[in-house]
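Dear Dr. L.,

I hope this message finds you well. Following up on our conversation about the binding site, I have prepared a predicted three-dimensional model of the protein together with nicotinamide-adenine-dinucleotide. For your records, I am including the exact sequence and ligand specification that went into the calculation, followed by the structure tokens. Please feel free to forward this to your student if that is useful.
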Amino acid sequence: MRVTVIGGGYVGLVTGACFSHLGNEVLIVEKVPEKVEKLRRGESPIYEPGLDELLKEGIEGGSLRFTTDIEEGVNFSDVVFICVGTPSLPDGSADLSQVEEVARLTAKSMKSYKLLVEKSTVPVNTHQLVKKTVQRYLGRDIPFDVASNPEFLREGSAVYDFLNPDRIVVGVEGDKAREIMEELYRPLTERGFPLLVTDPATAELIKHASNSFLAMKISFINMVADLCERTGADIELVAEGMGYDKRIGRAFLNAGIGYGGSCFPKDVKAFIKIAEDVGLDFGLLREVEKINSERIGRFIEKVLNALWTLKDKKIAVWGLAFKPNTDDIREAPSLKLIPELLKKGARIRAYDPKAMENFSRVFLPGDDLMYVQDKYEAVKGAEALLILTEWEEFAKADMEKVRELMELPIVVDGRNVFKPNHMRALGFEYYSIGRS
Ligand code: NAD
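The resulting structure of the complex is given below.
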């Protein structure tokens, strides 16, 4: 099939590259010309494991192309995936202006039937607004459908997730839209991945409900971690003990410095607002947000307990990305922690395997904040090491070497990367989350 993807970010690129890998002809429309130029040269503007290979395969095979021209994109195929951003507005609701723009421009450009598919995360019933917008700007009699096909990929394993989904959710209104979506996903459903067909409103709601539920699991375990710290219990074993229960599951029970990223914070906010707009108080989610935002202060407290004061202390930071295997720093805890540490007078040497370029655009390097190219370089002469992201290369680091390089062997681990007994045996003063 021919497929159009509008928006060449994390979701659009992965969606386009994967659909091309599954045997379709794909045209990705991205409005930032520099991104398109880079992509045409076969360079990905983002880091995502496995994406470079798929882009190369698609570009060299001629099944994956890029353009800045939305009219060309819309008329390239019958199926137009909307993969643009839906960030938060100041009141917490989703800013749908990019989705509206795509609906409007699609209406003005289309010359024949189109199925517009919302892959962006949007509030329930956005499909009705998309439909109304297309009708308004179309001004001529061309049939179209609007479907919801929320995306559940995780950054860091996005390509794998797209090609091995726990489920595919498709919200459609008519048979034609349903048949197109079923056909498109056939290579995955034939391999046994479940496809749930719903109405569009239900599909839209499934996405916000899923992300909010996962954020709730994280805040829940973080609160239990606080309880562990005050009672002498061990959060890792509590999570393991809970996780064996199939009704609970072990995933997303990792205590730490809280959730971040481009999805959970904004989707929880949007879900609270969606409920509020229909007269419901989703107080549970407001508590999820509150617990999450308190993580930063709690981590700083831990650092201060370990170091007493931070003025002129040499601090190594491992990890800036909001999670491992990505260069994405949107809403990363590091964005709040680093300025707090700097305000208290710390002198920081930071290292992240992929996110330093993005981070150093927000916080320019200077005397108090240096970016180094190697994790061992970061800890040289440091009076403490703070771990903010659980990259595998940190878990595999030679910690004896780290101890020798540091001036003081103090580690404050915000992601429970190491085992306390092991760290103490190596001679570290080791602080972590929810473990005495
Ligand atoms: P992103 O910011 O990385 O990408 C959006 C892209 O769309 C940008 O490159 C932007 O330039 C482009 N764009 C905006 N308007 C355009 C237009 N009119 N024409 C062409 N291009 C346009 O965002 P993302 O992380 O890919 O997220 C996109 C959507 O998917 C959001 O709604 C998000 O909530 C949802 N989502 C994201 C993830 C994730 O892990 N990132 C997972 C599931 C769902």
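In brief: The chain has two domains: 2-198, 201-436.

With kind regards,
A. P.
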